[in-house]
Each structure stands twice: as C-alpha cells, then as structure tokens.
C-alpha cells in the first residue's frame, strides 16, 4: 500500500487505544480522517472492517483495514519509514519495547479498569496495590529504555511511550474518583515527570482528552456498568 | 553463526517453548537448551524474567528476551535467513493479528474445555469451536497461514493442532473435525508432519500421559 493512499482511523475521542494510533500517525505527520464512532450504534464500515472483533480502533489504509491498537502502531512504523522511528532499530531494544507494551496491556490495564469500574473496597484496594507495584517495574523499565533521555523511546516518543501514555487521562480520572495516587511522586518519580513531558508533546497534545471531559464521560459509563452488573450480596 | 551464545530456558511440554524451538530450528540456529523445573524455579529464571517468572526465556549474549511472541519477533529481527514474518507491512499486520487472536480467543476457550466441567465445559467447547472457525477464515484455502511455506502464524499457532487433539482425547470433547472445519483440520494434520516441526514435538504418548494426569488432578474430588 503506497504511503500516499487515503488513511482513515475509526475510533472514539475517549479511547486510549484509538489514541495510540492517532499519536503514531501524528508522529509520522500522516494526514488522516478521524471517524468518531458511536459504539452503541456501530457503523457499517466498522462492522465490515473489523468483522472479527467489531471493535475500535481500526486503521483503514486505502481499502485495507488494520486492527488491534499495538499492531496498528507497528504497521504505521513499517509503512511510514521516515524519522522518527517509533520502534527501536536494535533487535534487543525492540524486543524490550514489545515486551513492556504487552505487559501494560495484559497485566496493568486490567487492574486500572478494575479500579475505575469495579465495586467493592477490598477488591479495589488489591487492584490498586497491584497497579502501583506494576508501575514500579515500569519506572525501572523507563530508566533502562530511556538511557537518561526524556522518553522511553529516547529523544523522541516511541512505542512504549505511546503504549503507556495513552492511559494518562484515564489514570487521572481513576485517581480523582478513588482519591488515590497511581503515579506517585514517592514511588515513581521519573514516570511523574515523564507523564508531563508526554502530555505536552505536539503529537499528543491534540488527542489526549481533557481530564474533566473524560471524568464526565466515565461517570456515565460507570453508572451504566453498575446497573448492568449489580454487586452480588 | 560462530561465537553466538544462544540459550533457551524451557519446559518439555510447554507449547510456548515449542514455538521458540520451531523458530530456532527453522533458522538453523544452534542453542543450548535448559529444562526448567517449574515447581522449583531456578534463580536464573527468576533473574531473567522477574515480571512473569515464566518460561520460555531466550538468552542471547547474556541478555534475556521473554514472552514467546516477542521472542519470535526478536529471532526474526536478529537472524535474517528464512524469514518468519512477511515483508509486506500489511501482511505483517495480518499475521500479528491472527497470532494474537489465537492466543486471546482460541487458547483460553480450549483451556476451558480441558479444565472445566458440566455447563461451563459445554460453554467453553462452544466458544472454542466458534473461535477456531474464525481462525480457519484466516487460513482460507492456503496450505499454511504463511502461504506455500510456513510463517509467523503457523509457528505461533501450530501447537494448537496438537493440543486440540490432546484436549479432545483427555476431556472427551469434539473441537475440530473434517466436517465442521475442513481447512483447519487439514492444516492441523499437515503442519505437524513437516520434518522440522515434527522433530521438536514431544512424543504423543508422553504428552497424553502428562495431560491425563493433569486432568485427573483437576477433576479429582469433584462430584
């Protein structure tokens, strides 16, 4: 698929996973049309482009759909080869980046989701401990990956920055609703500083939801989920 | 390559270690294999994989790479002969998609069919069949997911062919057959017969015995 073919991204303004694709496209200065999907009434295009999962994000390049947020980011890096690279060129550094992104999705994000949407104080406390513990590992990883530079990717935002940074608005909302600190100055000072740098980056600035706006949306989503899943007595 | 130091920490019947063995074999990479005791994990394993404490771990020049799909990509990035992932970016994305789909959707359902009982088991069997049918659509009429030759998805997902048969035998279920999934069924038979692939698969009897014992322990004491 030629770099110049039309690019469309199906996502939502609030989805951290859609944000990953948007940041990656912005880093590469790719012009794209953003389609803000209504997930309660999914478009024909979405249902056709991701017939397996029927989920966003979906990147449509020309007539070819690419699904799964991290796979989309790798695809963007593979197609638009101009600098900066999103994934490191060194195989070992690449493997490290792939590992941490997968870790965040498999181990860390479920805990975050559980804290934001979950019910039951004890269960939440356990998830908070789990999430904070995981972030201490991510803080260590930041030290190793960044090698003293501002981002996991070094001088520029890279794969792990994108994979993790997309959750920052959701982290802030979760902290606010539960009166907790996940990104803690005491335990993860480097990540706290990194978070600020990440949010100010031009590729991120326009696509990170405002905390207040996301909080309003999350409140509605939480109520809906609680109505659908009342706590077991 | 002379002077390469490649070590694989694995477990004899781990399908995730098997993926890595296949990739290394395909590329003709010599390596030292270390059989880990998963009940008493070695200090080496805990040091190499503090986040998950699991095998497989590939150690190259003393540096550990963990998570089997990450290891496959690392192997393909490092040793350029007999490429595993396709060259075309879109085809690469498709390959990564199917490997992830199999891990996220087919494997848990298959495990459910093996570990659960009663209604939950029936539900898991149905889910496994549905997801395997979707996986079949990724294969289509091709001989292998990689086309005429095996590729990333074959190496990542090929173990499911063997483990589906183990599950069917031990848990007494039907997951994949020539009638319901002719294309996938044919690939389940074709892939393990390739010499490079066959050599690495543990003997069927050993696998069956191990899984029968595991199943017995899981279902022991249930009514």
What does this protein look like?
The complex is a heterodimer of chains A (233) and B (223). Chain A is α+β, with helices and mostly antiparallel strands. Chain A is built from ten helices and four strands. Chain A has two domains: 7-79, Glutaredoxin (3-Layer(aba) Sandwich), CATH 3.40.30; 91-215, Glutathione S-transferase Yfyf (Class Pi), Chain A, domain 2, CATH 1.20.1050.10. Chain A is 58% helix and 7% strand. In chain A, α4 (91-117) runs antiparallel to α5 (121-146), α4 (91-117) packs parallel to α6 and α7 packs across α10 (211-228). Chain B is of the alpha+beta class and 223 residues long. Chain B has two domains: 6-78, 3-Layer(aba) Sandwich (Glutaredoxin), CATH 3.40.30; 89-219, Up-down Bundle (Glutathione S-transferase Yfyf (Class Pi), Chain A, domain 2). Helices cover 57% and strands 8% of the residues of chain B. The longest helix of chain B is centred in the middle third of the chain and has 27 residues, at 89-115. The mean pLDDT of chain B is 95. Classes of the chains: A alpha+beta (233), B alpha+beta (223). The A-B interface holds A 1, 52, 61, 64, 66-68, 71-72, 74-75, 78-79, 91-92, 94-95, 98-99, 102-103, 107, 137 and B 50-51, 60, 63, 65-67, 69-71, 73-74, 77-78, 89-90, 92-93, 96-97, 100-101, 134.
Rg for CA atoms of chain A: 18 Å
Second-tier CATH architecture of the largest domain in chain A: Up-down Bundle
Count structural domains of chain B.
2
Order of helices and strands of chain A: EHEHEEHHHHHHHH
Rg over CA atoms of chain B: 18 Å
Q: Name the helicity range of chain A.
A: 55-70%
Q: Compute the average pLDDT of chain A.
A: 94
Count of extended strands of chain A:
4
Structural class of chain A: alpha+beta
CATH class of the largest domain in chain A: Mainly Alpha
CATH class of the largest domain in chain B: Mainly Alpha
Biggest interface goes to:
A-B, 23 and 23 residues
Number of domains of chain A: 2
CATH architecture of the largest domain in chain B: Up-down Bundle
**Structural class, from helix and strand content of chain B?**
alpha+beta
* Unreliable runs of chain B: none
Biggest β-sheet: strands ordered side by side in the sheet of chain A? 2-1-3-4
EC number (chain B): 2.5.1.18
Domain GST C-terminal (chain B): 88-214
Organism (chain B): Rhamnella rubrinervis
GO molecular function, one term (chain B): glutathione transferase activity
């Amino acid at each position: 698929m030629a770099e110049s073919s039309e690019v469309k991204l199906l996502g939502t303004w609030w989805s951290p996973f859609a944000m990953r694709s948007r940041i990656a496209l912005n880093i590469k200065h790719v012009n794209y049309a953003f389609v803000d999907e209504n997930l309660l009434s999914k478009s024909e295009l979405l249902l056709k482009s991701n017939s397996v999962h029927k989920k966003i994000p979906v990147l449509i390049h020309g007539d070819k759909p690419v699904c799964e947020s991290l796979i989309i980011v790798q695809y963007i890096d593979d197609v638009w080869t101009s600098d900066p690279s999103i994934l490191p060129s060194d195989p070992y550094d690449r493997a490290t980046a792939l590992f941490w992104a997968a870790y965040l999705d498999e181990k860390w994000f479920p805990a975050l989701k559980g804290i934001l949407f979950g019910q039951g104080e004890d269960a939440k406390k356990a998830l908070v401990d789990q999430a904070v513990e995981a972030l201490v590992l991510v803080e260590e990883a930041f030290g190793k990956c960044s090698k003293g530079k501002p981002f996991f990717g070094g001088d520029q935002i890279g794969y792990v920055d994108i994979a993790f940074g997309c959750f920052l608005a959701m982290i802030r909302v979760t902290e606010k609703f539960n009166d907790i600190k996940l990104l803690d100055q005491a335990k993860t000072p480097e990540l706290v500083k990194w978070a600020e740098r990440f949010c100010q980056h031009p590729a991120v600035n326009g696509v990170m939801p405002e905390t207040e706006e996301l909080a309003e949306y999350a409140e509605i989503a939480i109520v809906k989920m609680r109505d659908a899943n009342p706590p077991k007595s | 390559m002379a002077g390469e130091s490649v070590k694989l920490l694995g477990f004899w019947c781990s399908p995730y270690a098997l993926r890595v063995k296949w990739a290394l074999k395909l590329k003709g990479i010599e390596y030292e294999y270390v059989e880990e005791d998963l009940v008493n994990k070695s200090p080496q394993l805990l040091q190499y994989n503090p986040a998950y404490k699991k095998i497989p771990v590939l150690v190259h020049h003393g540096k550990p790479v963990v998570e089997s799909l990450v290891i496959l990509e690392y192997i393909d990035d490092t040793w350029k002969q007999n490429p595993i992932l396709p060259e075309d970016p879109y085809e690469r994305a498709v390959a990564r998609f199917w490997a992830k789909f199999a891990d996220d959707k087919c494997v848990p359902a298959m495990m459910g069919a093996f570990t659960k009982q009663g209604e939950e088991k029936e539900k898991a069997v149905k889910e496994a069949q549905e997801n395997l049918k979707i996986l079949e659509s990724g294969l289509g009429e091709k001989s292998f997911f990689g086309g005429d030759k095996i590729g990333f998805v074959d190496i990542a997902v090929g173990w499911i062919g063997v483990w589906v048969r183990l599950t069917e035998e031990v848990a007494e279920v039907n997951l994949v057959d020539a009638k319901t999934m002719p294309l996938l069924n044919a690939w389940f038979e074709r892939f393990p017969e390739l010499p490079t692939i066959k050599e690495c698969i543990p003997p069927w009897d050993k696998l069956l015995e191990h899984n029968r014992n595991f199943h017995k322990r899981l279902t022991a004491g249930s009514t």
